[in-house]
């Protein structure tokens, strides 16, 4: 059975192409709901008008669907709570000049 740790590891491979960093480090990944072989990913974007949004959602789906034992993936976009730079890892803040 897939674990949240497996999901997070897979999501480290999903990059925001505008910022060149993965969505976990950027704080865009909010939650994984795992129900057996079904996984729901809740995430945000840096802004509502993010032009890379559809590509990021597709990459999230593909990364999680590739995990052994996963049969269905749902990707949900939310802006509640809205993303802020405070959600980034310390490394991401440093690299992007927010530290």
TrEMBL record:
PANTHER family: FE-S PROTEIN MATURATION AUXILIARY FACTOR YITW. This is Putative metal-sulfur cluster biosynthetic enzyme. Residues 5-75 form the MIP18 family-like domain. It comes from Gaiella occulta. It holds the Pfam family FeS_assembly_P.
């Amino acid at each position: 059975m897939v674990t949240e740790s497996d999901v997070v590891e897979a999501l480290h491979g999903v990059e925001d192409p505008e910022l060149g960093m993965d969505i976990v480090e950027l704080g865009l990944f909010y939650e994984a709901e795992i129900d057996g072989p079904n996984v729901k990913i809740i995430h945000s974007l840096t802004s509502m008008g993010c032009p890379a949004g559809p590509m990021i959602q597709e990459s999230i789906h593909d990364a999680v669907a590739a995990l052994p034992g996963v049969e269905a993936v749902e990707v949900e976009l939310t802006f509640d709570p809205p993303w802020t730079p405070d959600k980034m890892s310390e490394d991401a803040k440093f690299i992007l000049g927010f530290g």
